Amino acid sequence: MMKAAVRTMEEMPLSGFHYKMFAYSAGSAFLDGYIIGIIGVALSVMKTQFDMSLTIMGLLGTATLAGMFVGGIIGGYLTDLIGRKKMFLIDMFVMLVVSILQFFIKDPVQLIILRFILGIAVGADYPIAGALMAEFSPKKNRGALLGGINSLWYVGYASSFLIGYFMLSIGDTSWRWMLASSAVPVLFLLLARLNMPESPRWLASKGKEKEANAIIQRIFGEHVVMSVEPVTKAKTSFLDIFRNGNGKWTFFVSVFWSLQVIPTFGIGTYIPEILAEFGFADGAKEYLGSAIINIFYLAGLVPFLYLVEKWGRRPTLIWPFFVSSISLFILGAFSGSDMPFVFVLVLFIIYGIFNNAMGMHEWIYPNELFPTHIRGTAVGFATAVSRFASSVGTFLFPSILANYGLAVTLYICGALFFIGFVISLIMAPETKNMSLEEASSINKKSSNMGVDIHQGI
User: Fold this and answer.
1) Does the residue 409 lie in any domain?
2) How far apart are CA 348 and CA 314, in angstroms?
């Protein structure tokens, strides 16, 4: 009788289990998008009831992002220390409690504090979700699965505007219900994650190979192993993300991610105000337009989930940076003219589709370029840096818009995307069809063997 061939986890075909893990992980992106988006609609109602300065408005818009700076660093490091599943559950519980407490605030300062705590929980969720998805994914589908997580950010973001739009009919207290509404998807995700497995790769990196193999065999069968390469127990050290060839990728991921999210969060948080500046302030059109824009963002990502595996990582990062930049330059140039609503929507949709394409790499590159024992730490650090940058940008956004006008604001956003285009052109590696072991050692391979890691643009 012939012995069954042994295969690795990364050689297994896509199955229902992979889609279930995708749902667990993508829930993080959905919550991030929803929580960040709903404040934009809630603020439009709150400002009619509270006397809020531009500083308070800016702090309310950026508190969650600032919290993500803390949450990314702490959560990423802890998920490498104590495990993916434990951190997932702790994180969801905190998010549930804080979401509910938002309903009962008495003044904007209390909400700023709660939004900051909520941001810590959201920031911690990023490195957990990405690491889990990467560590269970087949290598031929890993880019699409990780990139697909980003699509749920736009589902959450678009949902927040739709729900906010319909909640406007509640009246003066509608903003309270908007903010507390995030408790519903958080509770659902918390209950769902109770049944998820721990990452075998993380267990093996901590010397728990027997437990890791038991999970693999239970899920995939007895003739499946983690890797053809020997598993080495490794101690998690925060500084390792800057050592042993990892520093280059820490810089690259942190910079391109920051350059993508600074304009994205600024425009996204204040998109109703931006559409109002274009002359579409009839009390509802700016919110409906925001939801329509984000729905098209999502639809535009679908072909890029195919292309990231067909063409590779580099071209699907480089050219979206360029196209998004040009779209905003055009919007800035025509912002002073009387443009039809449809024309503005189309330009924002083009910007959003390509912006979403580059955004999917925030989940792909960080989770592919670092080894298991520091994967969460590295993703958490990049999350923290990008969220700090975006919180500063979002804080300054309303002031720049008020003091310098819409055209200058859009030119600045377009310029940041263009810088991202240049940096990605120079630094972005190609990791298509590589195992996690190969991708996480690509810098050492390219240095020692002369491998070209910048194939194709």
Assistant:
1) yes
2) 24
Per-residue DSSP letters for 213-227? Answer: HHHHHHHH-TTEES-
CB 145 within 8 A of CB 18: yes
Residue 214, domain extent: 8-445
The total of other beta-carbon atoms located within 10 Å of residue 29's CB is 27
Report in angstroms the alpha-carbon separations of 114 from 42, 62, 291.
15, 12, 25
> Are 116 and 64 contacting, i.e. CB atoms less than 8 angstroms apart?
yes
Considering only CA atoms, which of 313, 316, 355 is closest in space to residue 454?
Answer: 313
How buried is 195 (Cβ within 10 angstroms: 0-12 exposed, 13-18 middle, 19+ buried)? exposed
The reply to whether 454 falls in a domain is: no
Lowest mean pLDDT among 46-50, 132-136, 328-332, 444-448: 444-448
Domain count, the chain: 1
Q: Are 301 and 144 in contact (CB under 8 A)?
A: no
Give me the phi and psi of 225, to 5 degrees please. -120, 170
Neighbours of 401 (CB within 10 A): 19
**pLDDT tens profile 357-406:** 888 999 999 999 999 889 999 999 998 998 888 878 877 888 888 889 88
Show the tokens assigned to 131: 């690491």
455 within some domain = no
CA 333/CA 361 separation, integer angstroms: 29
- List C-alpha distances in Å: 158 to 36, 95, 126, 257, 332: 11, 20, 19, 21, 24
Name residues whose C-beta falls within 8 Å of residue 205's C-beta, 6 or more positions apart in sequence. 231, 232, 233, 234, 372, 373
From residue 243, alpha-carbon distances to 239, 248, 360 in Å are 7, 9, 26
- Kindly tell me the sign of the dihedral angle through the C-alpha atoms of 382, 29, 65, 415: positive
Residue 393 lies in a domain: yes
Q: What is the pTM of this model?
A: 0.84
| 11, 219, 221, 222 from 5: Cα distances, Å | 12, 17, 12, 10
Q: Are 274 and 293 in contact (CB under 8 A)?
A: no
DSSP per-residue codes, 340-406: -HHHHHHHHHHHHHHHHHHHTHHHHHHHHSS-HHHHHHHHHHHHHHHHHHHHHHHHHHHHHHHHH-H
Distance CA 419, CA 321 (A): 9
Q: What is the CATH number of the domain that holds 12?
A: 1.20.1250.20
